[in-house]
Amino acid sequence: MNQSSPTKANGHISAAEKPVAVPLLDLRRQYKTMRDEVLAAIARVCDSQGFILGPEVETLEREIAGFTGAAAAVGCASGTEALWLALVAAGVKPGDSVITTAFSFFASASAIVRAGATPILLDVDPGTLNLDAALVERRMREHRAGTHPAGKTRAILPVHLYGQCADMDAFQRIAEEFKVAIVEDAAQAIGAAWRGRGAGSLGATAAFSFYPTKNLSAYGDAGIVTTPHPEMAEHMRRLRNHGSPRRYYHDEFGWNGRMDAIQAAVLRVKLPHIASWNEARCLHAATYDRLLADAGLTARASHAPVRPLARAAQAKHVFHQYVIRAQRRDELRKFLTERKIGTEVYYPLPIHLQPAFAYLGLKAGDLPVAELAAQEVLALPMFPELTEAEMGWVVESIAEFYT
Ligand SMILES: Cc1ncc(COP(=O)(O)O)c(C=O)c1O
Predict the structure, then answer these.
(1) What is the DSSP string of 37-101?
(2) In 233-387, which ranges are E strands?
(3) Can you tell me which atom of ligand 1 is nearest the CA of 346?
(4) What sign for the dihedral angle of Cα 255, 152, 163, 193?
């Protein structure tokens, strides 16, 4: 990994070190370091001619269970599929409702619909942008008092946004008091932890995505569900295979949500590296923090042109994304794009304002923290092989934009 320091001339990166472009994510750098191993793993599957589930998937399931600290893991076709399995196994039924965040990828809420339930979309904490536990607690009390009779609230689905766990102390307390399940959306958070306990071992079930941009990524779509409950794992094994306990016998309606053996084989090559990759991401985040502060961009807190998100002391963040809140975000993004610096907006439209969810009856202004975040957030380049010179150029460019 290239961690070379940028040479500075008058506090700036020298012309010789100016990168031509800085991608948001460059998977080719990772591939170069493990090409032979990955191709050998794919060849192993081709030689076996066993392409769906089978020993590669079973071994990956054991390895991921061990890595996350969960009792069992169930490999499946995508993170979206993992969310659906996690919800159904946790007991969510048609007519129920599930509380989740309005500031996440669409699948966090659409999986609830797919399980036949109604999402209750709530606002987020202004510091971390994770689901606001105080609002969840208030909503649960209102449900108990009968003010919001939106079906039986069966589960809370916190999303560990950008790789940082949501406030699991609060959610575990609320889940206990109101007898609801916690279903973690850990799609962005493999290797993250809360008070030393791994994401994926903090609720009844948890969904991970191995989409190619994720910290641990497949060569196509794949996902996995973890759970401390062996009986839920068995249920999910049936559900991912048409609700079938044995070939051509079906006890309930499942779906084809199985994992490919090639994806499992690739993921098994990568899994031993995830801790060091996550560590590199944390170091990069610290570097961005320092460079932004040195450039005077994050000083004077609320008036600063750029504000990093808050970090919870109990959370081990894995920086799936390094996200800033930026004044004149769209202009800044255009300026950086012209310099071939990759950025992304996760997410430009909160879930409650997506046309597909118009039927929930929420409108602009209802969830103001999420709505403001959608206008301000900007993800900067972040991947383990990113160099300090590249980060230096990103921050120097941001500084130029604001001067
Ligand atoms: C928070 C979150 N939930 C769910 C998903 C869905 O995962 P997948 O794309 O693997 O279906 C994603 C992936 O982008 C995600 O970021």
Answers:
(1) HHHHHHHHHHHHT--BSSHHHHHHHHHHHHHHT-SEEEEES-HHHHHHHHHHHTT--TT-EEEEE
(2) 306-308, 315-316, 322-326, 377-380
(3) 16
(4) negative
Find the residues whose C-beta lies inside 6 A of ligand 1: 78-80, 83, 104-105, 107-108, 159, 185, 187-188, 209, 211, 221, 223
Q: How far is the CA of 187 from the centre of ligand 1 (A)?
A: 5
Q: Which of 341, 346, 342, 339 is nearest to 324 (CA)?
A: 346
Q: Buried b / exposed e across 236-253, counting CB within 10 Å, b at 16+?
A: bbbbbbbebeeeeeeeee
pTM, two decimal places: 0.95
Span from the CA of 163 to the centroid of ligand 1 (angstroms): 12
Nearest alpha carbon, ligand 1 atom 14? 105
Cα(261) to ligand 1 centroid in Å equals: 20
**What residue type is 191 in one-letter code?**
G
CA dist 125 and 231 (Å) reads: 34
Gap between the Cα atoms of 61 and 215, Å rounded: 17
Q: What is the DSSP string of 150-186?
A: -S-EEEEE-B-GGG----HHHHHHHHHHHT-EEEEE-
For residue 157, the cross-strand partners are 100
Q: Which of 220, 209, 159, 215 is nearest to 187 (CA)?
A: 209
Task: Collapse the DSSP code of 205 into the 3-class scheme (helix H, G, I; strand E, B; otherwise coil) and give the result.
Answer: strand
How many whole angstroms separate alpha carbon 104 and alpha carbon 160? 9
Ligand 1 centroid–CA 76 distance in Å is: 13
**CB–CB of 74/224 below 8 Å?**
yes
CA distances from 185 to 22, 131, 199, 399 (A): 29, 11, 9, 35
Task: Give the three-class secondary structure for 299.
Answer: coil
- pLDDT tens for the chain, 403 residues: list them: 344 444 454 457 777 778 889 999 999 999 999 999 999 999 999 999 999 999 999 999 999 999 999 999 999 999 999 999 999 999 999 999 999 999 999 999 999 999 999 999 999 999 999 999 999 999 999 988 776 555 689 999 999 999 999 999 999 999 999 999 999 999 999 999 999 999 999 999 999 999 999 999 999 999 999 999 999 999 999 999 999 999 999 999 999 999 999 999 999 999 999 999 999 999 999 999 999 999 999 976 667 899 999 999 999 999 999 999 999 999 999 999 999 999 999 999 999 999 999 999 999 999 999 999 999 999 999 999 999 999 999 999 999 999 9
